[in-house]
Amino acid sequence: MSRTAAGAALCLVGALTLATSPAAAEPARAIADPLAGYHHQHLTWKTCQLGPDDETGKELQQAGAQCADVTVPLNYDDPDGRTITVAISRIRATDTDRRVGALLLNGGGPGGQTIGDPPWIRTSMKQVGERYDVVGVDPRFVGRSTPLDCKWPTGSFVRGAGTGRAGFDRAAAFAEELARRCRTYEGDVLPYVTTRNTARDMDVVRAALGERRISYLGYSYGSYLGQVYATMFPGRTDRVVLDGVVAPDRYSPRLLRGTERANRHALKGWAAWTAARHTTYRLGRTPNAVLAAVDRIQTAAGRAPLPIGDHRVDEQVLPVVVFNGLSQDNDTAYGVFAQAVRDLRRAADGHTVTPSPWLADTLGFLLDGSDSSYGSVQSAILCGDVAASHDPETYWRDIQQARTRDALFGPVTNNIGPCAFWDPPRESPTTIRDDLPALLVNATGDPRSTYESARTVRRMWPSSRLITLRGADQHAVYGVFGSACVDTTVNTYLATGRLPSTDLPCDRPSG
Prior knowledge:
alpha/beta, Rossmann fold, nine-stranded mixed sheet, two-stranded antiparallel ribbon, 17 helices, disordered N terminus
C-alpha cells in the first residue's frame, strides 16, 4: 500500500471447532516448543525487486530494504503439517547504539499488502526511524505471501442492494456465488485464513527476527490485528500505535454498519469543496446542488446501467463508487473524485465517456477479476473470524430501516455479503484484553473506522492515550494527512516509549 492509499483499503471486510477459551492468551509451552523450528528458522534476505516493472520492489530497493520469506504452519494445531510462507521487508536501524527494536506494520484491509510500506513509514518517523528495524509484513495469503484466489469476477464483495427486493435478491445471489467460488477453489485453506492465525504468524516473525518484543503500527483493520496480537501474546509488545481504530465489538463481516452518518458527513464536505470549484467541475454552485447531482446519477443508474468506457455502472455499483471516493480528506482526493462524478453525470446525460484514471481503476477493481485475490482474502478473513447471519431476511430488514436514514449509503453498509453463505468459523473471536498502554489515533470524521470506535477502545484501555484529529473526514492520519501535531506526538512516543500525560486534541491544519 502506498502512502497516498494508506488506510483506504477498508472499503471498505468442515465441522465447527471452538477454542476452549476464546479470550485466553496463547498457552505457555512448559516442556517443548512445537514451534521451535519456526521460531529459530534462518531467514534468507534478498532483493525486494522482482523484475524491472516491480515498482514496489524498486521503492524498497532504493530505501535500502531487503526481503525474506518466513515459513509458518497453515494450521497451528498441526505444526508438522502443511506450511505456507509470509513475505516480509525490512529497513534496518542505522542508529544501532540507540536501537529500540523492530517495528512491525500492518496497513489494513483486511487483505491489504504492507510489504511496500517501510519506505514511507520510515520517512514519516523522521530521525526516530533510524532507531528501528521497520518491517512490512504481507499477512498470510496476501500479496507476496502464499496466495489465495477464489477466481472472483470482482475485487470486492461490497455492493448496494438497489431500490427494491429484486435488487436485493440479485445481491444475495451474487454473494452466494462468491462464497461458492471460494469453497471450490480454496476450500482446504479457508478455515485458517483468520486474524488469530495472522497474529500467530506475527509472533513467528518476531522470533525469527530474534526479537524478544516488537513494536507495532497498525492502520484500520491493522488496529484490530494489533489488539488481537497483544491479547494472544501478552508481554511481547513494546510500543503500540493504532491509527483508524476498529473497536472489537464492531468488528464482524458487517463492520461497515453504522458508518452511514460519517460517510454522509464526508460526502457533504466534498460537495462543499466541489461547489467552491464549480468553474472546474461544473457539478453545482452550492453544496446542495452538488449533492443533487449525485442523487440524479444514482436515479439514472437505477433506470439503466451507465456506460463508462468498457463498463456498465448500475444502481448496485454506483453507490460503492461514491463510498470508495470518501476516505481521504485532501484536495487531491477530492479532485479525482469530482472528476469521476463529472464523468458519471455525463454518462447519465447520454454522453460517451472515457473514464478518468481514478474512476477507471475503481471500476476495474469492482467489475473485473484482476483484483480477485484482494476481495477473496478480505472475505475469507472476515468470514473466518466472526460468524454472520445466514438469514437473508435479517439483511433485508436492516436495509429497509437504513434506507429511511440514508438512501445512498444504507443499502451498501447493511447489505448481504458472502459471509452469509460461509461455513462457521473454526475458532471463536478473541476477547480483547482489559488494558494496554497504547497510542490511539483517529480523526473525528473518519468514514471507515468511526471516531466512536476509537473512543470505545480508549475506554477499554484506561492506560492508553487518544490523539484526536478534529475537523477532518480522514481515514488513517499518521504520516498520511500532514498533521504536524499528530506526527510529532507519535514520533515522540516511538522515541521515548512514554505516552502523553493526557489525551491530545489536534486541530486540522489551516489552509
